[in-house]
Request: fold
Amino acid sequence: MTRDIGGDTPNRSFSLAPRILAVNVFAILVLTGSIFYLDSFRERLLDQRRAEMRMQAVLIASFMAGAPPAALPAIAARYGRVGALRLRVYDRDGALAADSWRATGPTFELRDPADDPFRRDVARFLDQVVEAVGSFPKIVGYAEPAVDNRAAWAEVAAAAVTGRPADTMRAAPDRIVIISAAAPLFGTAEAPENAPFATVQLTRDSRDITSLVRAERLSSFYVFLFVLAASLLLSNYLASTIVRPLRQLALAAQRVRLGRARDVTVPRFNQRRDEIGQLARALSDMTLTLRERIDATEAFAADVAHEIKNPLASLSSAVDTFGRVREPRLQSQLLEVIRTDVGRIDRLITDIADASRLDAELSRSRYERFDLGTQVERLVDGYSSAPLPRGVSVAYAGPGETAIVYGDNARLAQVARNLIDNAVSFSPPGGIVAVAVTRSARHVELRVDDNGPGIPHENRDDIFRRFYSERPAAEDFGRHSGLGLSISRTIVEAHDGSIVAANRTGGGARFTVTLPVA
Reply:
């Protein structure tokens, strides 16, 4: 038993290579069936030959009826020569009365298999295999009897007793089927009741049928060997182009699963343009993304530790000092420091929890169509209902038409709120934060402008990093965690949008969020 790479459920491993071979061998088996079909074809030809010989025996017997015994050898020789067969006549006593071979010589021969070439040995071997597997009847061997009389031939004895034609098949030493047919010879002379009939026996080999079937079978066998070799080569080729790359990818994925992602190089198979190449490149990209996620997680953990360490150090120092101070004014100042640090830690933990859950929550969010302009307008109205620090105000300019986007309403509202809060914190006393939503044919833009000091050119990318916090001097220490802009960028990119920061002409910063129109 082996353990499945992708999980903990035990699963027996079955390679694709034998399956590929099995599919290719299936076609070979179908081809092999044609060899057995040839065997049934041979049976039908032999059955037809037996029927023909029974009919010939009856016809020849009717021609010989009434002929004088002295004329039988000549008649037998004539019919034997014409039909290329051996014709024998047995009288009522069962003795041989005429034999065509005495006048014409053999019309077929019994060959010794030892004298045959190798090709016929192969053909006979195939005969034996096919007959053993197929439905060909078992037949006895053919041999000339020591005493040639009616009793030596079962079909002759049956025809003499029953008065009906009979036939049988026998196998020559080289496995050629010999067919014998016998028919009663009805003479004019009276015979005792229940006395056996005189009989005519026709014997002929089926070498022509066997040669035809063997030639076709041998050709099919050669085709079978060729197809088998081609199938094995193709199976090996498919295994090398499918199974081996998949095995490499599986091993690389297993090493990644075992925590060795940093030292694993997933093959990309850039030269392949098929599904295997697409899978390899997708797994490679997934591994690279995983590495980036791991690095980001480690950096995030380090940033969290660093950001929490500062307020904890301040809090620890204030607590230690508080126990040694007796002056009420200093104690009050230390309590204020403690409250500030606790609040900062609380804000950090809240923002960190939000940032850590963001990807998972975005993947589960239910996106819908909504008007971004209407949503931002309501949000700005909320800022107008309560006084902002330093007399800062927020103004809104709508698109004058619907600005429909497709996304998570609450998360995009969080983006607008983060940008407005950031602009308010950098605005001078009495400053105005200008919020505008515009719409083009393909995009909806959200712009947030302030009158603050602007963004240093070298820090335009840094401000979107987590825990980056370049705050104005007048702002209370620890009021912001430095995660707002990072969270905003993550949300916007999850909506197939972009967020950029720039300086306005005349002073101040501008944040622009671009989203596709629904």
